Amino acid sequence: MSSTTDASTGRAQISARTLRTDRWWLPPLLNFAGLTAWVVYATVRAFQQDNYWVGEYEYLTPFYSPCVSVGCVPESAHFGQFLPDVWWLPYASLTLPFLLLFRLTCYYYRKAYYRAFWLSPPACAVAEPHKKYTGETRFPLLGQNLHRYFFYAAAIISVINTYDMVLSFTTGIGLGNIILLVNVVALWAYTISCHSCRSIVGGRINNFSKHPMRYKSWQFVSRLNAKHMQLAWLTLGTLAFTDFYIMAVAAGWISDLRIVG
After folding, report:
1. What residues form the membrane-spanning segments (predicted)?
2. Taking the model in full, what pTM does it have?
3. Which of 7, 65, 75, 236 has the highest CB neighbour count under 10 A?
4. Nearest in space to 67 (alpha carbons), one of 160, 185, 130
């Protein structure tokens, strides 16, 4: 296979697509399968507009939080009902776009879907099929620079998810409460492990010794940042599992295992 690299850009010139002998194609393939499956599931659930609330135990799935459509069950609409009830508008339209943009612009996810969907490049030391490379200097990828602002929105949404979780404990303790709690902890860990959060906490400081609290915070966020990839996938799993469990209880497929109350 002829090289797809360009000497004028200073990129390596080899005649083969790659000299690697390992299964370099496996990670992008798994990423493609995993991200596609999650997007399909999340899209179906967001537009299903049913089985998202268990009133008896105050369980609200994160895919519908906050529920602000006039079609929402009134008890589930903790922040009011002001969006129209139409099939093409998810009940949580106020927050879902910001969550999507936060994940799309996340440094790890950018690496994952650039390689899995655009093959840019498919793996390290593997030639990509594109003749031109402009990085993130043109629209729409220029919008990746807005990641910091989407982080602020994601932090607010994590507060809302935390509120939903705390509210569910007012009816007692069941398996659903534990699942909601685990999901919220995972979401916070992923959110604050973000590179933007690390920069916000420790940025613009020339002398850490003069800012001991910010230094300790920066160290904590840095440790989480080292696990950002794992947390990114973990939260996809906890979000889907939490939603599926609440859907199953709401639909009457299973009963919530109660511990207290």
Report:
1. 24-44, 88-109, 146-163, 169-190, 231-254
2. 0.90
3. 65
4. 160
Token duo for residue 45? 């659930």
Please, are residues 188 and 165 in contact by the beta-carbon 8 Å criterion? Answer: no
- Measured CA to CA in angstroms, residue 212 lies from 49, 57, 163, 209 at distances of 48, 43, 30, 6
> Domain for residue 10, yes or no?
no
For every one of its 261 residues, what pLDDT tens digit does the chain have, with 9 covering 90 and above? 344 455 445 555 667 778 888 999 999 999 999 999 999 999 999 999 999 999 999 999 999 999 999 999 999 999 999 999 999 999 999 999 999 999 999 999 999 999 999 999 899 988 888 888 788 888 888 899 999 999 999 999 999 999 999 999 999 999 999 999 999 999 999 999 999 999 999 988 888 888 999 999 999 999 999 999 999 999 999 999 999 999 999 999 999 999 998
Give the domain extent around 211. 25-260
**Total count of domains within the chain:** 1
* Residues 6+ positions from 32 with CB-CB distance below 8 Å: 116, 117
- Amino acid at residue number 106: C
